[in-house]
């Protein structure tokens, strides 16, 4: 489906995700990230999350009929160049998004398989994990962190980058989908991320970009921001490897300036 992508200077990007009223993660982070990377941002809320930089207080999931209304309100009117999917909260939400995807077929879909926040709070019901696994073959890029990668494979989280890469290759092989493997949660001096594709759609089967780790605890919403940036830059350039290089460069800057923001007392946001 990626080959049908019509490149646009300002691609129209739809985020389908949960919210963060403090503006650091979820839909709010996606919109900032899309704008910062040259896209026009749109958003459909799967779940309303009462959270701040210290943690999640509660989650409200509107009826799926209303989710469907939001999705069709956008797609009945706007040509969507790319979709980023984030927090899906529960099984019936996944089913609804999947059914919309099969009807509306945007040319590019990036899935961030959100499961648990850094604070330890669950953002996906355990009973929905299999449905999330089953959604992967429907998308163009999946962006798991080391913990999500392990859950998707039914394995233990890997402790080294080499092992994470192996797991990424296994997920790509079993789903046929390109995997953006992320090393940010490892305890290494560098922050490596790699695009892994076992089907040979990339020029190389692994494209890796490692940058020095920025020393900050203000990393709230980094995963959300990264996945929506990838959707945006890919819709502009049509080149996954170039997108990763460009996005990593932007993210490095956003992390480097995170401490300037002084937002909240917990894990604060990055500087979009
Ligand atoms: N809140 C929402 C709505 C999210 O989608 C996510 C992650 O994807 C988070 C919070 C987690 O943010 P973090 O783990 O970066 O604190």
UniProtKB/TrEMBL annotation:
NCBIfam families: HMP-P_kinase. Pfam families: Phos_pyr_kin. It catalyses: 4-amino-2-methyl-5-(phosphooxymethyl)pyrimidine + ATP = 4-amino-2-methyl-5-(diphosphooxymethyl)pyrimidine + ADP; 4-amino-5-hydroxymethyl-2-methylpyrimidine + ATP = 4-amino-2-methyl-5-(phosphooxymethyl)pyrimidine + ADP + H(+). Residues 20-271 form the Pyridoxamine kinase/Phosphomethylpyrimidine kinase domain. The keyword rRNA-binding does not apply. Pathway: Cofactor biosynthesis; thiamine diphosphate biosynthesis; 4-amino-2-methyl-5-diphosphomethylpyrimidine from 5-amino-1-(5-phospho-D-ribosyl)imidazole: step 3/3. GO terms for molecular function: ATP binding; hydroxymethylpyrimidine kinase activity; phosphomethylpyrimidine kinase activity. Catalyzes the phosphorylation of hydroxymethylpyrimidine phosphate (HMP-P) to HMP-PP, and of HMP to HMP-P. The lineage of its organism: Bacteria, Bacillati, Actinomycetota, Actinomycetes, Micrococcales. One of its GO terms (cellular component) is cytosol. This is Bifunctional hydroxymethylpyrimidine kinase/phosphomethylpyrimidine kinase. Its EC number is 2.7.1.49, 2.7.4.7. One of its GO terms (biological process) is thiamine diphosphate biosynthetic process. Gene3D superfamilies: 3.40.1190.20. Keywords: ATP-binding, Kinase, Nucleotide-binding, Thiamine biosynthesis, Transferase. It is an enzyme of class 2 (transferase).
């Amino acid at each position: 489906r990626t080959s049908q992508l019509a490149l646009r200077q300002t691609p129209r990007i739809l985020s389908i995700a949960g919210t963060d009223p403090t503006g650091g993660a979820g839909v709010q982070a996606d919109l900032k990230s899309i704008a910062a990377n040259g896209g026009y941002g749109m958003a459909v809320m799967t779940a309303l999350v009462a959270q701040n930089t210290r943690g999640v207080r509660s989650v409200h999931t509107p009826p799926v009929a209303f989710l469907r209304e939001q999705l069709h309100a956008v797609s009945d009117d706007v040509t969507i160049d790319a979709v980023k999917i984030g927090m899906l909260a529960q099984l019936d939400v996944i089913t609804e998004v999947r059914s919309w995807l099969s009807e509306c077929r945007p040319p590019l879909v990036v899935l961030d398989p959100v499961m648990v926040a850094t604070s330890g709070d669950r953002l996906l019901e355990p009973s929905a994990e299999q449905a999330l696994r089953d959604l992967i073959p429907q998308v163009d890029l999946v962006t798991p962190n080391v913990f999500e990668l392990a859950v998707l494979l039914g394995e233990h989280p890997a402790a080294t980058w080499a092992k994470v890469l192996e797991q990424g290759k296994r997920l790509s092989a079993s789903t046929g989908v390109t995997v953006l493997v992320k090393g940010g949660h490892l305890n290494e001096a560098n922050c490596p991320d790699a695009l892994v594709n076992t089907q040979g759609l990339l020029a190389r089967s692994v494209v890796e970009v490692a940058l020095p780790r920025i020393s900050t605890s203000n990393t709230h919403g980094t995963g959300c921001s990264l996945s929506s940036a990838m959707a945006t830059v890919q819709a502009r350039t049509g080149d996954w490897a170039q997108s990763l290089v460009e996005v990593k460069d932007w993210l490095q800057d956003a992390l480097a300036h995170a401490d300037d923001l002084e937002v909240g007392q917990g894990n604060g946001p990055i500087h979009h």
